[in-house]
């Protein structure tokens, strides 16, 4: 028997649903669960992150994937999720495997108490030899508070349970240096630095939500957290154990020697960002050089409603995001402090403090950590200090 591992397996929509009639691929689920049941018997702890609810629910709401809007997809998710779980439960029972469903949102993953509840629930399910099946709660999550794709969700889960491996199963054998539909695309077996491959990955299948790009983002998050990611074809016999036993080709994203500090891992993997500070290019360069935080003198503009402890984007004047950091003040306090530079802080916000708006110790420079640059998608309230 191989050593016992904690493995997060992610299944994409393209594996679960036929792209033409949007029906469930029972044969795939059958092969997958037979494999997972065997691995569980061998002592491995497995978590399944499964997409498919939207694809499987679209027939009920009468839409094709290419024409469905956000509300259609949220309704489809509500229709498809029970179909998906019903199939998993039925097939699992044939292999004496017990399954449980967990639907989560970004807020659940990023709020400390809920994070702990999710983690503890998963650990308790492991103790009872029950396979947790996780999906984003699409019908509940709002547009700007979504994980957005299950690739990144699976990376967050892998980080949460300190998994040994994240195995992303999809419709292609792994990462190529360009879209594999292009002639001469070359297969990439091993990746040392995921960030170098973020650009080579555009184009998605009809059912998928992010294509290879979101898989690379997930691998990047996992790499920062010290978790190895494997991207492999799913429609194959024993899709997971054939990877563990190295019986076929796939892409392996190695764990780098240096794992970031827990604060930086947490900051880098955080999808929910509450606001933005814009600073001069000179200050931005100082931040990138790790010499300084953001003082009230440095703030050129503020966007978003945030409170102390929230994560902020830090942009330079050219509109490039250079860093992310934890703020020591609310948006209102920051605005007042930046607006009244001639007054002592105490007179402006009512208490004494020497803190920077964002301290250098709580800043993550994006360049260093190869982060995805998630700019806020929606228009936020913009406040320019007078
Ligand atoms: N560089 C690349 N390497 C591999 N696949 C790529 C690349 N660029 C684009 N793709 C496309 O990404 C698709 C996989 O993404 P997607 O269909 O969203 O998967 P899933 O539903 O499994 O999440 C593949 O079908 C492939 O055509
Ligand atoms: N939560 C959605 C899946 C979104 C998603 O990430 O899809 P995919 O890129 O196919 O893994 C669903 O269940 O349909």
UniProtKB/TrEMBL annotation:
**Which positions does UniProt annotate for substrate binding?**
51, 138, 150
Residue ranges that the Swiss-Prot or TrEMBL entry lists as coiled coil: none
The record lists the catalysed reaction(s) as:
L-glutamate + ATP = L-glutamyl 5-phosphate + ADP
Highest taxon above the source species:
Bacteria
Please list the residues that bind ATP. Answer: 10, 209-215
**Listed InterPro entries:** AceGlu_kinase-like_sf, Asp/Glu/Uridylate_kinase, G5K_ProB, Glu/AcGlu_kinase, Glu_5kinase, Glu_5kinase/COase_Synthase, Glutamate_5-kinase_CS, PUA
Enzyme Commission designation:
2.7.2.11
Location (main, coarse):
cytoplasm
> Residue limits of the PUA domain?
275-358
Broad class of enzyme this protein falls into: transferase
| The protein's annotated pathway | Amino-acid biosynthesis; L-proline biosynthesis; L-glutamate 5-semialdehyde from L-glutamate: step 1/2
GO cellular component terms, alphabetically, are: cytosol
**SUPFAM superfamilies attached here?**
Carbamate kinase-like (SSF53633), PUA domain-like (SSF88697)
Say yes or no: keyword Kinase present.
yes
Subcellular location(s) of the protein: Cytoplasm
> Which terms in the Gene Ontology molecular function aspect does this entry carry?
ATP binding; glutamate 5-kinase activity; RNA binding
For this UniProt record, the keywords arranged alphabetically read as follows: Amino-acid biosynthesis, ATP-binding, Cytoplasm, Kinase, Nucleotide-binding, Proline biosynthesis, Transferase
Q: Which Pfam families match?
A: AA_kinase, PUA
Q: What does the record list as GO biological process?
A: L-proline biosynthetic process
What the record says about family reads: Belongs to the glutamate 5-kinase family.
- What's this protein's function? Catalyzes the transfer of a phosphate group to glutamate to form L-glutamate 5-phosphate.
- Put simply, this protein is called Glutamate 5-kinase
